[in-house]
């Protein structure tokens, strides 16, 4: 059900979540992760995000996870890259230059398949998931990241009863509850972006808060 929903979104081009510019929180906060240039970054539920290109421009290598072959095709085609593809248990690995994307269910990813990573970047990944999948998602990040690895996580808060997700509203208290057994946790930013999101304003939502968190694997 969950997978069909996303495949259909990509097949019908309903990808309003995709941003034409790099996320301002990424540019503002990434330095706080204090990573070496050659760090390998996990980008869960990566879509065809241009944030991956920004990270590579900083010298990083990317390993993303994504269900949709359309998203993956569009990402590489948009860079003029032709990835090599290899079949792995439950996943198809697409590689070109500093980019690797694992096609399959991120919640089923193992450390062996992902390989060593130094950090993670979650923009619109946790908030893409309904409540019953958030704990398995948090468990997957804990399983895949080594001790000391940092994550920049970007989420939304709004009155959930006024609009269905995705993106879902996931408040700081829930994020803390999901992650705090395995991660240290700091809130970096909480910004009202309602003015740039008329679909939320149209249904009377009074504020759409975008939040950023820095987490470190214990
Ligand atoms: C809201 S979009 C965000 C995409 C990207 N992070 C961005 O900022 O543009 C969520 C993405 O996660 C993918 N997705 C949803 N569930 C997934 C899962 N279980 N495993 C891998 N990818 C998934 C969807 O196909 C979609 O591209």
Describe this protein's structure.
This protein has eight helices and nine strands. By secondary structure, the protein is an alpha/beta fold. It is globular and about 45 Å long. The chain binds S-adenosylmethionine (SAM). S-adenosylmethionine is lined by residues 6, 17-18, 45-47, 49, 65-68, 71, 105-107, 123-125, 128, 166. S-adenosylmethionine binds at residues 6, 17-18, 45-47, 49, 65-68, 71, 105-107, 123-125, 128, 166.
Helix-strand layout with pairing:
Layout: H1 2-11, H2 24-29, E1 40-43, H3 51-57, E2 61-66, H4 69-78, E3 84-88, E4 91-96, E5 99-103, H5 111-114, E6 119-123, H6 131-144, E7 150-157, H7 172-179, E8 183-192, H8 198-202, E9 209-217
Parallel strand pairs: 1-2, 1-6, 2-5, 6-7
Antiparallel strand pairs: 3-4, 4-5, 7-9, 8-9
Bound molecules: S-adenosylmethionine.
S-adenosylmethionine (SAM) binds at residues 6, 17-18, 45-47, 49, 65-68, 71, 105-107, 123-125, 128, 166.
For the structure shown, list the relevant keywords.
alpha/beta, 29% helix, 9 strands, globular, nine-stranded mixed beta sheet
């Amino acid at each position: 059900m969950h997978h069909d929903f996303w495949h259909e979104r990509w097949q019908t081009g309903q990808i309003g979540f995709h941003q034409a510019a790099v996320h301002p929180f990424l540019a503002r906060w990434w330095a706080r992760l204090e990573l070496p240039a050659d760090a390998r970054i996990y980008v869960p539920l990566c879509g065809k995000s241009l944030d991956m290109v920004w990270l590579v421009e900083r010298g990083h290598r990317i390993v993303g996870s994504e269900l949709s072959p359309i998203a993956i095709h569009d990402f590489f085609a948009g860079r003029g890259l032709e990835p090599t593809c290899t079949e792995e248990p439950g996943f198809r690995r697409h590689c070109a230059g500093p980019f690797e994307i694992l096609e399959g269910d991120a919640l089923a990813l193992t450390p062996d398949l992902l390989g060593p990573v130094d950090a993670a970047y979650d923009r619109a990944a946790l908030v893409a998931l309904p409540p019953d999948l958030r704990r398995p998602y948090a468990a997957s990040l804990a399983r895949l990241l080594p001790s000391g690895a940092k994550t920049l996580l970007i989420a939304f808060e709004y009155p959930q009863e006024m609009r269905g997700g995705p993106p879902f509203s996931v408040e700081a208290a829930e994020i803390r509850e999901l992650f705090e057994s395995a991660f240290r946790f700091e809130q970096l930013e909480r910004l009202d972006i309602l003015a740039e999101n008329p679909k939320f304003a149209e249904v009377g939502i009074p504020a759409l808060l975008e939040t950023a968190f820095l987490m470190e694997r214990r």
